[in-house]
Amino acid sequence: MATIKFKPLVQNLFQMGESPVYDERRDALWFCDIIGQALYSVSLTSGDMKTWEFPSEVCSLGLASSGRLVIALRNDVVIFDPETGARQTIASIEAGRTATRLNDGKVGPDGAFWVGTMDDRAEKEPIAALYRVDPNGTVERKIDGLTISNGLAFSPDGSTMFHSDSRGPWIDRWQLDAKTGAIADRNRIAVLDDASGRPDGGATDAEGCYWSAGVSAARLNRFSYEGKLVESFPVPVGSPSMPCFGGADLGTLFVTSLRHNRPKKSIEDFPLSGSVVAGKSPVAGAPVSRFRDI
After folding, report:
1. Range of the domain at 228
2. How many distinct structural domains can be found in the chain?
3. Any idea which residues carry the catalytic annotation?
């Protein structure tokens, strides 16, 4: 069985750690705690952690060309300047629907922020969707009929979008036009279950493979472009939520995880649940894009 030696990036435990993004300009890892309503930055040089609090759930984030961040709150997409604390709402999504909230989001190679919603109720239905938010704040609804939109990641050449539904539970591959943001040629490349790892957040590596956080199975699953399970790596957290690649060579794998509402047995078996863990990856990651706000 292939293994990666993981260790905690910081000693803190987070309730719903999500959306890790490596910032090469600052040599820092950004991530959020959704229900903790907070954004975090950890310097990979010093290990120092900074925290910013928000008035609602902080659901996902991406880097912007200006050095700011694009952040999905419960219903709003905002541009945030960590240097000044300034926050500007550029779009509101499903603000009138109490049953849904924003969830997984990533900046695409088209320079737009792609973000999905999820049914936030205990008994979930396919009432969510995936949206594209351009730098002008224009919102375009891209995919309907989702339950928990998740797993966004883009191929190294920018021509492919991977996307999942955690309650599908499936992973789809789309062709993407990086100039226009148009998607086409939907292919379902994997259907999973609790044992193999329902798909949560995703990332892509330099070889074009897709890494999926198997949130139900304490695993990271690496799929080929066609959807073949190439490798499956155990992680020391019971519910991994999203992988990302970082460090100067994009050779470090970071994984956020969940602690909130996990079964007592899971916490006993995986006391590091809620940690952000890091380990040397067997393959380098694909660089991520920045939101074209300038």
Report:
1. 6-280
2. 1
3. 200
